[in-house]
Design brief:
Layout: H1 7-25, H2 32-39, H3 43-54, H4 58-76, H5 81-87, H6 93-104, H7 108-114, H8 124-130, H9 136-145
Helix pairs in contact: 1-2, 1-4, 2-3, 4-7
GO molecular function, one term: sequence-specific DNA binding
Organism: Nonomuraea endophytica
Protein name: AraC-like DNA-binding protein
Length: about 150
């Protein structure tokens, strides 16, 4: 049996394509049903398998990508919170603000004010890594990595 005929491998490739689509099209109107249709599987199956492989639901992964991009836009300081909300693909300012606060630990407007110059002089690839939001379940691991 070749690896291309392995059903589990095919499913992992499919899930990677879904994750890549989220990474690429985060600002587009995406939902689990649309992602599942694109992968030719049911929304329930996609959600279960995505969570099993990546540790979070496709929706949670999508919102994290949107919040990461929002953090970058807010640090620039030239867009309002509302403009950033819509620029990253969120259609509800309330949902955006709630999710942002959950992941980052402060409201988008507070983050915009405090982080305006945080990435100044840091290469973008480094800033992306050190300034990404830390979810509550990741906080203990991140603290354990500190010297």
């Amino acid at each position: 049996m070749t690896s291309s005929s392995d059903p589990r491998l095919r499913e992992l490739v499919l899930l990677r394509r879904v994750r890549d689509r989220i990474d690429r099209d985060y600002a587009q109107p995406l939902d689990v049903e649309a992602l599942a249709r694109g992968a030719h599987i049911s929304a329930g199956h996609l959600s279960r398998e995505f969570r099993a492989v990546y540790g979070e639901s496709p929706y949670s992964y999508l919102m994290t990508r949107r919040i990461e991009r929002a953090m970058t836009l807010l640090r620039r300081g030239d867009l309002s919170v509302t403009d950033v909300c819509f620029a990253v693909g969120c259609s509800s300012l309330g949902t955006f603000s709630t999710r942002f606060s959950e992941l980052v630990g402060m409201s988008p407007s507070t983050y915009r004010r405090l982080a305006a110059n945080d990435a100044e002089g840091i290469p973008a690839c480094v800033a992306k890594r050190i300034m990404r939001p830390i979810r509550n379940r990741e906080a203990a691991t991140a603290r354990a990595d500190l010297p």
